[in-house]
Specification:
The complex is a heterodimer of chains A (519) and B (129). In chain A, β18 and β19 (332-333) form a beta hairpin. In chain A, the strands form 9 sheets. In chain A, strands 1, 3, 4, 6, 7, 8 and 17 form a 7-stranded antiparallel sheet that branches. With 519 residues, chain A is an alpha+beta fold. With 129 residues, chain B is α+β, with helices and mostly antiparallel strands. Chain B has 3 helices and 5 strands. Chain B has helices at 23-34, 41-44, 66-80; strands spanning 6-8, 20-22, 86-95, 99-108, 111-120. In chain B, the strands form 2 sheets. A 3-stranded antiparallel sheet of chain B has the order 3-4-5. In chain B, strands 1-2 form a two-stranded antiparallel ribbon. The chains are: A alpha+beta (519), B alpha+beta (129). Chains A and B meet through α3 of A and β1 and α1 of B.
Chain lengths: 519, 129
């Protein structure tokens, strides 16, 4: 009788194999050995056979389980608990034609200032290494396979150069490169006298444009707060003729009529100016311009390697996308994808997208809002533009996908007392930080957070209690707050600002916000 | 009379064809195996019962002092006493130019016993038991 799937993927432990397989087989064969004292020959041979049997069962169970997406993508645990998620990339490629997204470097622009009268350079990739206060190190260059970075730091002047993180992102190993702008940077390579490195954040990011018009949109003046702004051209024309609208932090577009510029946009001190840039018509209907305030020195947000769970979701999402119709000429015609398909397409559009959420607009017919975020925070304007262009190019007949990124909501934790084995306190603190960071960043496959998540008190307690070395945790004393206040011993549901899209960001250290007691 | 058990007649290797041995000879083999099995070997195959053993061949091929022989005697006595069929045991170790001979005397469930385990010093080969 053929084995059932349950039998194939179930692995007995050695003791069970000994008692359920080996001994009954020996009894059936009526062996005359009666010395079963430890050290006996037949007893030893029996344990060797049972050990080999367990190895063989594990091999069979691994191969059988890996054939099923739910097991290899980690959606369901195998009956015997063996982990076949390492097969996920192979199954994704072979069965779905989907490549796993690999880990990437964080790349940022560093300002190198030379106070000496001797120029330094030319320097190529790897020619300089800098270090941030966090201990994170960055290396001159972009990290791209065809990196052709070459800079000379002029005498008594400065130059902006790309630096990539020393390693690709790996949150589990503590390799996260979310250093802020405006920090004190030291040079690791010390043979550049007179040269200092800084990473100032500009008031505005560069403007990312989706569409074919050559007119420009430029933000200026002194802004307040952190915001994402989108400028959409509604009717074509030159400045003063073209009508346009603005969206603040993903909210609905508000018309600006045919103004050439506006000041104090949203009461935030932002001036937005349109210029023809030699075009006529300079601005084309449907074009969108994205920018953030403040800007960032980061040009590419690094990400972890795609988890088996996330890879599996993308694989399964390809199935709804297969249901397209053909036109009379036999060509595939894009129709309205499912929500899952939109999210999968957004994840495909850019490796910097690790969170995607699609929702139909509650008020405007045909509008589908696609929220995208990068690892640890909102997506850069250039990423939003990339995803928008990717979806726009598919010219869907009925849908109007509008891409935006959520606003970062700072989340805080406090109040708890952690009892931990004394010798394990340092490693426990580091491990708990990694677990909390993964959870708030949406990287925890057991508790994946998306846009406007509910931050669960019970999950934070579970993560804390599950940290190696922790032997006690004051559950009810743990509080969750936002923006440094509003603490409560309860779940926290985002958004805090109604009718917006928010994502949680957390940058605390449990060593400081919890009380640690040796036990 | 207590049964001292029947097992494969093996000390350092399996017989081919398979032969069984019973009684005092079986216990003698079992005690000899405790002196020729590296510590932890039974943990590696997953046997959950504790099993004390030494491999006296590890003492060979080097210069042995009086203190080394005393240590060997002590360890050998300790591991042999772990067999449930042994009540008391004392091990003597004598080293000649090319031969290390262990002599175990004691009492078990069937009365007093004595066995001799000679091992060639240069090759670590069990000559006879």
């Amino acid at each position: 009788m053929p084995f059932t799937l349950s039998q194939l993927v179930t692995v007995l432990d050695q003791a069970s194999t000994w008692s359920q397989i080996v001994i009954p087989e020996l009894q059936k064969r009526k062996v005359r050995v009666t010395d079963w004292v430890v050290g006996g020959v037949y007893r030893a041979m029996g344990y060797v056979v049972s050990k080999l049997s367990v190895d063989a069962q594990t091999i069979v169970a691994t191969y059988a389980a890996a054939l099923f997406g739910d097991y290899c993508f980690g959606f369901v645990q195998t009956p015997s608990g063996i982990d076949v998620t390492s097969w996920a990339p192979l199954v994704a490629k072979q069965c779905f034609g989907v490549d796993r997204i690999e880990a990437t470097y964080t790349v940022r622009n560093i300002t190198l200032t030379n106070t000496s009268t001797t120029p330094q350079g030319p320097l190529g990739p790897g020619g300089m290494i800098i270090s941030f206060p966090s201990g994170n190190r960055y290396i001159l260059g972009t990290g791209a396979p065809d990196d052709a970075t070459s800079i000379t730091i002029p005498a008594s002047d400065s130059v902006i150069a790309p630096f990539r993180s020393e390693f690709a992102n790996d949150s589990a190993a503590g390799l996260s490169y979310n250093d802020a702008s405006g920090l004190t940077i030291s040079l690791v390579t010390a043979n550049f006298p007179g040269v200092t490195a800084t990473n100032p954040a500009p008031s505005y990011s560069s403007v990312s444009h989706v569409g074919g018009g050559i007119g420009t949109v430029t933000p200026s003046a002194t802004p307040s707060g952190s915001h994402h702004i989108a400028v959409r051209i509604d009717t074509q024309g030159n400045t003063g003729v073209a009508t346009w609208s603005t969206s603040l932090d993903g909210a609905a577009y508000v018309t600006q009529s045919n103004a050439s510029s506006i000041t104090n946009y949203g009461g935030l001190g932002i001036t937005i100016t349109l210029a023809n840039n030699g075009g006529s018509p300079a601005f084309l209907a449907g074009d969108v311009y994205y920018f953030d305030t403040p800007g960032s020195d980061i040009t590419t947000k690094g990400r972890d390697v795609e988890t088996p769970h996330a890879l599996g979701l993308r694989c399964y999402a390809t199935r709804p996308m297969l249901a397209f119709v053909r036109d009379p000429a036999g060509n595939w015609v894009w129709t309205s994808p499912t929500i899952n398909a939109y999210e999968a397409l957004a994840l495909l559009a850019s490796t910097q997208v690790v969170v995607a959420l699609a929702q139909t607009d509650g008020a405007i017919n045909n509008v589908v809002r696609i929220l995208v975020a990068s690892q640890g925070g909102p997506a850069l304007p250039a990423v939003v533009a990339t995803v928008q262009a990717f979806l726009t190019s598919r010219a869907m007949l009925t849908d109007r996908p509008i891409v935006a990124t959520p606003v970062a909501r700072v989340v805080n934790v406090a109040g708890a007392t952690v009892t931990c084995k004394a010798a394990l306190i340092p490693t426990a603190k580091a491990a708990m930080n990694r677990e909390y960071q993964a959870y708030f960043s949406g990287l925890d496959p057991s508790n994946p957070l998306s846009v406007n998540p509910k931050l669960e008190h019970a999950v934070l307690v579970e993560l804390a209690r599950g940290t190696i070395g922790v032997i006690g945790f004051t559950d009810t004393a743990l509080t969750i707050g936002h923006d440094g206040g509003s603490y409560a011993a309860a779940d926290l549901q985002l958004p805090i600002t109604p009718s917006t899209f928010e994502m949680a960001t957390w940058s605390e250290d449990v060593a400081n916000v919890f009380t640690w007691v040796p036990g | 009379m207590p049964d001292l058990g029947t097992d494969v007649d093996a000390v350092t290797d399996l017989p081919d064809p398979e032969e069984l041995v019973s009684g005092e000879a079986n216990v003698g083999n079992a005690l000899a195996r405790r002196l020729l099995t590296p510590p932890g070997a039974y943990d590696e195959i997953g046997d959950p019962e504790p099993y004390d053993s030494i491999d006296i061949r590890q003492w060979l091929g080097k210069r042995l002092t009086t203190a080394d022989l005393d240590d060997l005697r002590s360890q050998a006595s300790q591991v042999l006493s772990q067999d449930e069929r042994v009540a008391t045991v004392a091990v003597d170790a004598q080293l000649t130019e090319k031969l290390l001979t262990l002599t175990a005397e004691g009492s078990g469930s069937k009365g007093p016993f004595r066995f001799v385990l000679p091992i060639d010093r240069l090759t670590g080969q069990l000559l006879e038991s």
